[in-house]
Amino acid sequence: MKLNKQQWQWIFYDWANSGYGILVITAVLPVYFKAVAHDAGISAANSTAYWGYANSFGTLIVSLLAPLLGALADYPRSKRRWLNVFTWTGIILTFTLAMLPPHLWQWLLGVYVLSIIGYSGGNLFYDSFLTDVADDQQMDLVSSTGYGMGYLGGVIAFIIFLLVQLSNGFGGRLSSYGVARFSFIVAAVWWIIFAWPLLRHGYQRYSVNAVANPLLDSFHRLRVTFSHIRQYRQVTYFLVAYFFYIDGVDTIFTMATAIGKDLGVNTTMLMLVLLVVQLIAFPFSLLYGWLAKRTSTRTAVLTGICVYLFICLYALRLDSLFDFWFLAILIGTSQGGLQALSRSYFGQLVPKESSSEFFGFYNILGKFSAILGPVIVGAVTQWTGQSTVGIASLAILFAVGLLFFLALPKLGQE
User: What DSSP state is assigned to residue 411?
Assistant: First the structure.
């Protein structure tokens, strides 16, 4: 199936914010933060815990606002407006990360928390645009392509960072801290360039009727949705399952480099592992889309959940670089596909004219789970002194998510 111009504009937003995802959330800022925290006398276990707590707190704000923001975006010509507000917030604060002196580690965490609000809020409206750019038969392909291209975009942004690092900061012009801060500038510029088509031209196909007071009407619509939640039984089952299994996915994503540092993996090797994971994730995201077409979206999602459950259990024996590589590759095979098909499965369940409102619930549960997971890992790591046990504790979340998702049917067109 050939993708149209509007679908490519949507797909390239995933490419755009992938620089933030890989350079800020996953690869560089966690290592940079642990380095500056170490310089400030913070232990490795505590800095890992603080990083987990910061990720949890950063998502809490968007989690609380997500349903209301989603409802507000369902009015005519509102979705693109809100997408711009949160995207530009994330971009500006990513630039700010690059401006902060290294010794201000508390400020670094604070600005990071605020940047997560922009990043996560932008993703809420981006996700809900899926129903505007693709019909039910196209959603698996478009969503999977979006995630795949996102990983490919992340690889290219990451390679730019690696080239600067391997050149010793432009021939010694930048210190190791300077290289890290340069990467934040790369992430922000990358975001601006490739998000611009959707920010400028994104077209909202579905909407609710315009009203005089959108804010009050949004509260009313949310109240009605809650009061009639029994009418959306499949949506409810999905959201409960999603709450648990996406918790583990997001937590592993945000805590991976910190765990690697605790295992003694050096920074250069961590960067190489992350690059390989991104390269693997690109084709496997597309492969999950193919699997969904050949079997069903439900079967493909269940496959991804089972892979992650195995990853958590295997983490109990994680004690070598080989083990770390093995789990990293497994993560690369399933991370993008599971997220992409969860998004398209949900998009096919919800009423199109209220997609942003329902994606608000989708995001609030995803974000609330992202609060729980890092706290679990941080607390178990501090309690046991072993970050591998912290990761293994996430297995219960995947198991619960698997049980709830098993109660869901194949979708009508499958």
Answer: P
